[in-house]
Amino acid sequence: MIKKETFNFLKDLIDNNNRDWFQDNKSRYEEAKQNVEEFADEILKEIKKIDLSIPSELPGKKTMMRIYRDVRFSKNKLPYKNNFGIGISSAGKGGDTPGYYIHIQPGESFVAGGYWMPQADHLKAIRQEIDYNTQDLLKIIEAKEFMAHFGGLSQQDKLKTTPKGYDADHDHIELLRLKSFTVSEKFKDSDLSSSKSVQLIIASLKQIFPLTLFLKQAIGNG
């Protein structure tokens, strides 16, 4: 579970996002980081039973995103992120492939997964797979439990026009217009601090797994 002290550290960091404060509270950061690493280890232990493509030797600490922000090309010059992030895929933490993400932030925690902004050749392959095997995808994303968790695929990253090679009156043109194929589910701080936190996260990731499998098969990585 995520300790309340971890959430308290993040709350204080949000109010004191500067290097002096962070250095003065480095021990709190290290304790919070260790808590999240241990939580990631618990998640990995269970998700590896579901998604066999995740490397068996992948440890929690290798899935954690850096808390230090790259401010070189950003107008936001705050030096630290206000969250902990856990990224899991067959490529480990990163990699241009479908996977899972756990976001830990006071009042803004969520679980997500799928494939965010795939590269051009992968996007083309996914659209082709959707065109050829639409029913396979619909069976996943229209399933009762999938809808209960996520409400459907995110519509955030989407073309306003028709993708090249497809007709505007295609029966599933709205799916083909997507540029990302992701879902997300919000969680309360109390959910992640409860004794059932791992089970709650895994229940969500379990529903994402068929989507990642469809997407990986589409790009030849299944």
Automatic annotation (TrEMBL):
UniProt entry keywords in alphabetical sequence: Coiled coil
Signal peptide, first to last residue: none
Domain of life, per lineage: Bacteria
Coiled-coil features, chain-numbered ranges: 22-49
Pfam families according to UniProt: DUF2461
Protein name: DUF2461 domain-containing protein
Organism in which the protein naturally occurs: Pedobacter segetis
